[in-house]
Amino acid sequence: TDNVLVTLENSNAASLTQTSTDGSFAFDIILNQNYTLTPERDDDLLNGVSTYDLVLLGRHLLEVERLDSPYKVIAADINKSNHISTIDLVELRKLILGIYTELPDNDSWRFVDASYNFTSANPASENFNEFHTINTLNQDMMNLDFIGVKVGDVNGNAAANSLLGAESRTTNGS
Known about the structure:
Blueprint: E1 5-9, E2 14-18, E3 33-40, H1 51-61, H2 70-76, H3 86-96, E4 109-113, E5 132-137, E6 144-150, E7 170-173
Antiparallel strand pairs: 1-2, 1-3, 3-5, 4-6, 6-7
């Protein structure tokens, strides 16, 4: 996605940059240091969010039709409680009705380390990284990828990039 604020920090300093339209970003760094790379985006709350997402979340809660992707489950965890419940349904409804101008317990986007493999029936409860730790950085890192998850967008139709139509996107880092 574009418009993602990416922070690169170590024990001495922190640098910020914004991703480009293709999701890439770059930092000037000092080699042989340890770094933490963290993406953040908290805007456009209703991007991809509709009453259809309420329907899908309700069907999941009633076990009529389970969400078929760990990223959909993470998107459905509106209050970031690490599980999906009727509270998430209420919170999503408040978002759609305009009662919320921001999510009280979550950002509008979450970023999952693309190399993470989900292993449980409840992906929202897993301890997946929303950052990369880089030990002794000594070369360009072109494959630090994240998968952007739009909170509330259970059917996955958010426009992740302001210049492109709705599609799944990842953030490529260097």
